[in-house]
Write a structure and sequence with these properties.
412 residues, mainly alpha, two-stranded antiparallel ribbon, 65% helix
């Protein structure tokens, strides 16, 4: 079972990606923990945290590419699933503070004491245990996505209308989490975390561990996505993307396929949010902002839709560009970033990976044509067949001239 899963997920592009990820997961923590600070190969802790944040963004982009690139569902609300996963992890981290908070209450977080809460809300129970919080990271975004998708897909809401509804969903959650009486910290959110699984969250070793965990989660989710998209299920998803009505007329329950991949994508986004929060140290309602969801779509478009690797590359490159532009061009960095998006839209409509893939395919076809041309003087009239394909043998009968008349057979 596992071997067939890995076999479906692997090809040359996936192998290169996994090799690079393995190198990054190993070398960055080693460069931070074992290489002396005086060495030019030392990786500072702030860089480890920054790259860890990039990896969580890459995982979020991967989730969006799965539903948009392969199923045609343009989601403008994946920030909601990302933020819900982040809040689930933030609630666990808040429960770990205990008496080390500002007010020293062993049970209530500081913001609840400040707002005169008398007891812990029922939905906070269980978050003092990591396994329960990890389960909620998957269950809460997955359940919301399942319920939302069940009604939306069965009602055959598609296209721009579905995109608007997903945007309305994340905006409604944004407004709800801003309320102090919701019990999630209001506009300040959850912060001032102390430790995770008993380890100091500010320690270099913990930061390196969170980076490695983000990288491993990205690798696992990438393999899951590759396995899904290269299976029979993936072929049906592409058919739904390209011709949903025709796929439905062929007898496929389109809403079931869309609901499965939508729920899987939401759970992946929740995992990304859970890994994001301990590395940045805060989660607030701003993560629900619809603009964040739109930005994720831009990452996928820049890297290349329906490539998976392109989604990861686009998330890392765009966020690195944002970091660099804010430092190098603090006054015009928004214009510089916007110019980058316009350039990609005009000259790389299929994204970076998609354009490179098309160029490589065209180059190979040119080489094949030139090889045949050198051997026979003319390009091949038809594509070469595989060894197992039947030969193109003309049927028996009288030979037909170009004018269409049959040549007479010689008399015996």
């Amino acid at each position: 079972m596992m071997s067939s899963f890995l076999f479906r997920a692997m090809d040359a592009r996936a192998g290169i990606f996994l090799a690079l990820m393995a190198a990054v997961i190993i070398l960055v923590p080693v460069g931070n923990l074992l290489v002396p600070e005086t060495s030019p190969f030392h990786v500072p802790t702030y860089a480890v945290t920054l790259m860890g944040k990039y990896l969580t963004y890459a995982l979020l982009a991967l989730a969006v590419d799965l539903v948009w690139g392969y199923c045609g569902i343009l989601s403008l609300g994946h920030a909601a699933f990302f933020a819900l996963g982040g809040y689930a992890m933030g609630m666990y981290l808040m429960r770990q503070i205990g008496t080390r908070g500002v007010y020293g209450d062993p049970l209530l977080p500081d913001f609840m004491v400040f707002l005169n809460w008398q007891e812990l809300p029922w939905y906070w129970y269980g978050f003092d245990m990591f396994w329960f919080a990890a389960l909620m990271v998957l269950l809460v975004p997955g359940l919301l996505a399942f319920v939302f998708g069940w009604f939306a897909f069965r009602s055959r809401v598609t296209g721009v209308y579905l995109s608007i509804i997903t945007q309305a969903l994340t905006y409604a959650l944004l407004l709800a989490f801003f309320r102090n009486d919701m019990g999630f910290g209001g506009n300040n959110g959850l912060t001032d975390f102390k430790d995770i699984l008993g380890f100091d969250i500010q320690a270099d070793t913990t930061r390196a561990g969170l980076f490695a965990a983000s990288g491993l989660a990205l690798v696992v989710c990438f393999l899951i996505c590759r396995s899904v998209t290269r299976s029979k299920l993936g072929k049906v998803l592409v058919a739904v993307r390209d011709a949903e009505s025709r796929t439905r007329f062929l007898g496929y329950r389109v809403e079931h396929y869309k609901l499965f991949v939508w729920t899987l994508s939401a759970m992946m986004a929740g995992v990304a949010g859970a890994l994001y929060v301990p590395q940045v140290g805060i989660i607030n309602p701003g993560e629900f902002a619809p603009a964040n969801s739109i930005e994720v779509v831009i990452w996928v478009a820049v890297g290349g839709r329906a490539t998976l690797v392109g989604a990861v590359l686009g998330a890392v490159l765009v966020n690195f560009a944002k970091t660099w532009f804010t430092a190098a061009l603090p006054d015009i960095w928004l214009f510089a970033l916007g110019g980058l998006f316009v350039f990609v839209t005009l000259f790389l409509p299929k994204g970076i990976v998609g354009t490179l893939s098309d160029g490589w395919t065209a180059l190979r076809q040119r080489r094949i044509s030139s090889d045949f041309g050198e051997g026979s003087g003319d390009p091949p009239s038809q594509a070469p067949q595989s060894p197992g394909a039947p030969a193109n043998v003309p049927p028996p009968g009288p030979a037909v001239s170009r004018a269409g008349a049959a040549h007479p057979q010689p008399a015996e």
